[in-house]
Design brief:
The model has no long low-confidence stretch (mean pLDDT 78). A hairpin with a 2-residue loop joins β11 and β12. Helices cover 21% and strands 38% of the residues. By secondary structure, it is of the alpha+beta class. The protein has a five-stranded antiparallel β-sheet, with no helix packed on it. A four-stranded mixed β-sheet has the order 3-12-11-5, with no helix packed on it. The radius of gyration is 24 Å and the shape is elongated.
């Protein structure tokens, strides 16, 4: 083989590898900054295989324990704070009377089982939105409630920066019937 041909092949291969690295680095940077829509924060949260690098909606299963590890990109000695807040206000009716959820005189934050450790916390959702409303209104029927909506959010504050994770609750099916034509929930 001609030395010039080998040299040209090596240059092309090296250029292709370099270009692939630049593209991969750009895609990674785009992903961790949420498309440059928001200033990057100096920490991220990990739960299982999921990384939460920016504000995003998450789904949590009913009565399952979720552990969230807080990983700092620059300072490991800072304290963190986690709170559960109302993500969106909503109205509902009980016996033809309208109510607004944010105006109820109940501390719903106590209903979520939060446990804290040095650099991680866990949460268990033991109550659905209907359960929470039943605490206030006993066994009344509720109208206008979408149980799959993002009513609450986790707010994780670390080093004066905030990561917000609105969450909804995934309920297990109440019953499953198997027929010849398929499965009905």
């Amino acid at each position: 083989m001609n030395k010039s041909l080998v040299k040209n092949i090596l240059v092309v291969c090296t250029s292709a590898i370099l270009l692939a690295g630049i593209v991969a680095g750009s895609v990674y940077l785009w992903k961790i900054t949420n498309g440059f829509e928001k200033e990057p924060i100096g920490f991220y949260v990990k739960s299982g295989d999921n990384l939460f690098l920016y504000d995003q909606n998450i789904s949590l299963k009913y009565k399952e324990k979720y552990k969230f590890q807080i990983i700092s990109t620059y300072n490991h000695d800072e304290k963190y704070n986690v709170s559960i807040k109302l993500n969106k206000d909503f109205s509902f009716t009980v016996n033809e009377q309208s109510y607004t959820f944010s105006k109820l005189d109940y501390d719903y934050e106590d209903l979520f089982n939060l446990e804290f450790n040095t650099n991680e916390f866990s949460i268990v959702l033991n109550y659905t939105i209907i359960d929470i409303l039943h605490i206030k209104f006993s066994d009344e029927d509720f109208n206008d409630i979408n149980v799959n909506d993002y009513y609450f959010r986790l707010e994780i504050e670390f080093n004066n920066q905030l990561l917000t994770l609105p969450f909804n609750l995934i309920l297990p099916p109440e019953s499953i019937y198997i027929e010849n034509s398929g499965v009905i929930f």
